[in-house]
Amino acid sequence: MSNRTVYSPVSEWLNMNKGARLEEIRLRSGKTLTAEFDPDAPQYFETLCNGEILSAAGADMIFLRGFNVPDPAIAGITVKEEKDTIRALKHLTGRPVGIFLEPVPSKESRKASTGVSRFIAATPGNALKAAAYGVDMIVLIVNPETGGDTSSINDTLKEFKKIIGDKVILGTGKIYPDGNADEDPILSIDEINGFVNNGADVIVLPSPGTIPGINQEWEASRIRQIHYRKRIAMSISGPVLNSQSQKLVMEAAVRSYQAGADIHHIMGDGFFCMTSYDTVMNYSLALKGKEETLFRIAASINR
What we know:
Low-confidence stretches: 108-113
Number of strands: 8
Strand order of the largest sheet: 1-2-3-4-5-6-7-8
Order of helices and strands: HHHEHEHEHHEHEHEHEHEH
Oligomer: single chain
Helix content: 40-55%
Strand content: 5-15%
Structural class: alpha/beta
Largest sheet: 8 strands, parallel, barrel
């Protein structure tokens, strides 16, 4: 990994196109860390948006959980026009921004679903709006309670690839058991191949210890297939990590790194519905070491 990649200026990382950013992630050799916050949740500090805290803690990319695509707003950010909300967040943090959307259930699973809110539904309209706002990555995650399944992911991927695939990084996978897969209740090799075939740039999967029975070898076997298909692997740690000790957080980082994850994502939790800043920092220290963590924290967004 070159020094240019490790210590690339914030402006370069922020302004890359899709292809360049995916290549940058590959060149970082498993040292890309992402965190999330709920844009409607209370602000940690009255004068800051919670994304600024995550970037200051060492996150390389910021995700919004539950982002209202039709009516965009983020607590702590004021804009003249709603369509500029995402760009304002990127300007304040110097970080690319991703969002999570939920595929609309297929006909087979729709009867048992509780429904997907139109604000976070993975519809063509929401995809086009997100791309126009400047969203850099969309991750499709199914929630078993809303009836999402592998079929609905693949249908959505095909559609999204056609309309925004040249601009926005598309990620998907499974981090919850859905009861619909015979080989593996979480994520099978066949499902990985299907997602890749239908347009996924990034495959997401649970990090070791997040789901009972999901260990390091399970994750490594899936990541080997993801890399064989020349895609990016994104390991997701559940919100429980935010309440664990520094030692356990650092051990979790090492496990996912050793399994081969390219992107490490930590889900949010608690009153502020965000990834804990100290969890981000401790994870970064284990993943990148002190020097690279310091650079990411210290680097001005104006460089």
